[in-house]
Amino acid sequence: MNQAVNLTNCDREPIHIPGSVQPFGFLLAVLSDFTICMASDNVESFLGTDVADLLQRPLSGVISGAAVETIRSRVDHLGGPDATERLFGVELQPGKPPFDLSIHLSGVYLIIEAEPSVHEPGVNSGELVRLMLERIRKTRGMADLAREAARQLKVLTGFDRVMVYQFHPDGSGEVIAETAESGLESFFGLRYPASDIPRQARALYQRNWLRIIADVDARPAALMSTATHNAALLDLSMSVLRSVSPIHIEYLRNMGVAASMSVSILRDGKLWGLFACHHYSPRYISFDKRTASELFGQMFSWIVEGREREGDVAYEARAHQVQERLIEIAASHDHSRRAIVDFLRDYRKMIECDGVAVWSDNTIALEGETPTEDEVKDLVAFINRTSPGRIFASAEIAQVYAAGQAFRDRAAGFLAIPISRTPRDCLIFFRREVTRSVKWAADPNKVYDEGPHGPRLTPRKSFELWQETVAGQSKPWSAADIRIAESLRVTLLEVILQLSDLAARERR
Ligand code: BLA
């Protein structure tokens, strides 16, 4: 491994060029004339030919002419970026057991990866995925969908634990669903810093949907090459056998995991999350089942896309309903501008928050978890000084308002909506510190093994690090939150106009 890589700069580790593969299969790199110029050093155990005897030979000297033709016929399909082709049950040598192949282009090389075919009689992967999809489509809402999907993937693959890990915009992530064998510590609900799945790994997972680490203790098979080529620079981004970052191997070992698999979940082409699977003994999943898992991940991604849109639409529709009611009530309200204060409970239902405050006509009213009256008054004065007449939101109050430091544990995030120009009345939504809204799952005092990089490399310790890094922050305000706030502002201005009309009429 590159000596310069450590726990603070892990996004510089060049994990796409490890110079080795996992030994559950072998890799050959051939040039356009199909001469072999690189091979993994475990090839002999699969093909019976020593790696040194294989280099520089034509591919047809090692595998059957028919197999070479089968491969050649697929090369034309490898046009687009990141294209791969899979072939199942190919007899590479006459009379010998068949292999499953993955082929793709990497620079000038055609990469051929092969692993022994596993055929389970009576099992059809298409049918398995069809049933899995039927089950998850019956669920309602995101949480239920994710839980059922984890359960289905666990049934398909037999891993001891399957999690759905969702990324946040800053690259940190969260276990939003989990299904595990009984007796295992739960990671459900825990949050992790972006560095646990560093940037280059996330970029890779966006291109390549599935990776399996079949045995963390397996010795990687080194790639050997002829003198004019350099195996240490062979880009294995799209490979299925790519050997795994030693830092990540240590992470898995520290938590007692012997095998892992992850399947990407994409939304609009961007990495949304991962199915993360763990097993406590080595576990190899056939290429056929991995392909089924990948297809399931792709279909799941589409379903998530739809559910998230539905969720946003429902959230905004609910807010609109409350607003409409406000307008109706206001029309028949007889205590003039106090109405704005009387609606406090209703505001809370519109935008996800822990508390809400309103400052109107020199009266202050609080609901739920908020700073104290005096603190809110000072905050209102600050908001009016710095951002008059505009919506002002922050998920880290102390960053924009130093005095907020004093109450950031109660209200780390605020979203302020001005509701009149003079005097500058406003409505403020508060969110508590996110570390306070995240619960510890299971026993935080469990003892872990420590590798050479220390205890940081376990989900539990890493969760603690995440808590330190996000102290003083609330859940971010989403685009939907801001849209609702904008429309609420318009509604309230209307309501205020109506109320003052009413008051004027009463005076006449
Ligand atoms: C990869 N890190 C990963 C992967 C996961 C995690 C799921 C994908 C590979 C796989 O399937 O195993 C992280 N796994 C988690 C988390 C949980 C979990 C958060 O189960 C929570 C329950 N990792 C670190 C640090 C570094 C690091 C500090 O924690 C770097 C210094 C690196 N993680 C790292 C690297 C990879 C990785 C380099 C890519 C591995 C590869 O594909 O080669």
Task: Describe the fold and architecture.
The chain has 508 residues and is α+β, with helices and mostly antiparallel strands. It folds into three domains: 10-16 and 119-218 and 244-309, Beta-Lactamase (2-Layer Sandwich); 20-116, PAS domain (Beta-Lactamase), CATH 3.30.450.20; 333-433 and 472-507, PHY domain (Beta-Lactamase), CATH 3.30.450. 37% of the residues lie in helices and 21% in strands. It has 15 helices and 18 strands. The protein has helices at 44-47, 51-54, 65-75, 125-137, 141-157, 199-207, 246-254, 287-331, 338-342, 344-350, 373-386, 397-400, 434-437, 459-469, 479-507; strands at residues 20-21, 26-30, 36-40, 84-90, 99-106, 109-116, 161-167, 173-180, 191-192, 210-213, 221-225, 259-267, 270-279, 355-360, 363-368, 392-394, 413-418, 426-431. The strands form three sheets. It has a seven-stranded antiparallel beta sheet. Strand 5 (99-106) and strand 6 (109-116) form a beta hairpin. Helix 8 packs parallel to helix 15 (479-507). The chain is elongated. The relative contact order is 0.11. Bound molecules: biliverdine IX alpha. The site of biliverdine IX alpha has 27 residues, from strand 10, helix 7, strand 12, strand 13 and helix 14.
Q: Briefly note the structural class of the backbone.
A: alpha+beta
**CATH class group of the largest domain:** Alpha Beta
Q: Kindly report the CATH topology of the largest domain.
A: Beta-Lactamase
CATH-level-4 superfamily name of the largest domain: GAF domain
How many discrete structural domains?
3
Distance between the termini: 84 Å
Query: Which segments are poorly predicted (pLDDT under 50) over 5 or more consecutive residues?
Result: 441-445
The mean pLDDT is 89
Query: Strand arrangement, largest sheet?
Result: 1-11-3-2-6-5-4
Q: Which ligands, by name, code or SMILES, are bound?
A: biliverdine IX alpha
Helix content: 25-40%
Radius of gyration: 29 Å
CATH architecture of the largest domain: 2-Layer Sandwich
The global form is elongated
Q: How would a textbook summarize the main sheet?
A: 7 strands, antiparallel
- How many H/I helical runs? 15
How many β-strand runs?
A: 18
Strand content: 15-25%
